[in-house]
Design goal:
Two copies of one chain form a homodimer.
Chain A (H helix, E strand, L loop, with lengths): L1 H9 L6 H11 L5 E2 H7 L5 H13 L3 E5 L5 E5 L13 E5 L5 E4 L14 E12 L1 H4 L1
The structure holds a DNA duplex.
Chain lengths: 136, 136
DNA sequence: CTGTGTGCAAAGGGTTTGCAAGTAC
DNA sequence: GTACTTGCAAACCCTTTGCACACAG
């Protein structure tokens, strides 16, 4: 709990019980979390405020949004992002069976040689398949 | 107009004016089209029916949905899809300036060597940047 | 004390469902 | 004629906005 407290202070966000619990939940999650799953676990907090909380976390570079194609936006802690730039150009993986989404920090993103006439600046890659847990 | 008529017949969908016009629009579009842009061009048709039309086209493998990260879902004709399988594993490109999205049919998708413990089966790649038109 | 954060109510937007009338074949 | 398709109304869900109260610093 004290780690996440430090994160909030470092980003000049006020330390409130709601923020602590949300951030703690994400800090210890093994997969990216959807807003829905946060609501389910933290029932007593207001759903609308949760939108604002996630938005401010995202703006400060504490978390990043993952569009994994399931329709549900998910969020995960940023490894090295800040309010100026999101370094979220790593590969994401979404399991077709359990629906969980992970950041594949260890996987090298492919270099896109610019064969098209368009100028490539960023990219978003989501791999899909069966995750380690569901394979066994 | 006769090409799209053949497509509908081949997929066992009834040939109606609405379907012809929607499909014709997508057939001749240079970029993927959003539902909003279809509504703008085909004002006289019912918005709700358009949802169902796009859904049935997608289910029959005539078009595929592209989630380009703009929030607006877009659709493009499938090169070689059918009701059993979508071969939409080509790379997509989204322009930050004009917002247009293209299928990069010519770009070879990278082969993902399975370095993770998860089993990779499909992928979704969206490149972002500035398109040819906006560069000039 | 001051400004930020929270909760509630309401509004907004996109999407889906139900049903009767219309139309392709 | 029959089954599919359409249009309209209403419902549903997710997300945003406005505002008064509560609370962190």
């Amino acid at each position: 709990m004290s780690e996440v407290k430090e994160i909030l202070k470092k980003k000049n966000l006020r330390v409130t019980p709601m923020r602590l619990q949300i951030l703690d939940l994400m800090f210890h999650a093994s997969a990216a979390v959807s807003q829905k799953s946060i609501e389910a676990k933290l029932k007593d907090f207001d759903r609308i405020t949760l939108y604002r909380t996630l938005k401010s976390f995202e703006e400060k570079g504490i978390i990043h949004k993952i569009e994994d194609g399931t329709g549900l936006n998910k969020y995960a802690m940023c490894a090295d992002c800040d309010e100026h730039h999101h370094h979220d150009e790593h590969v994401h993986f979404n399991c077709n069976k359990c629906g969980d989404t992970f950041c594949l920090e260890d996987m090298e993103p492919p270099s896109f040689v610019n064969k098209t006439k368009h100028q490539i600046e960023q990219f978003n890659i989501v791999l899909k398949g069966t995750c380690e847990m569901c394979l066994n």
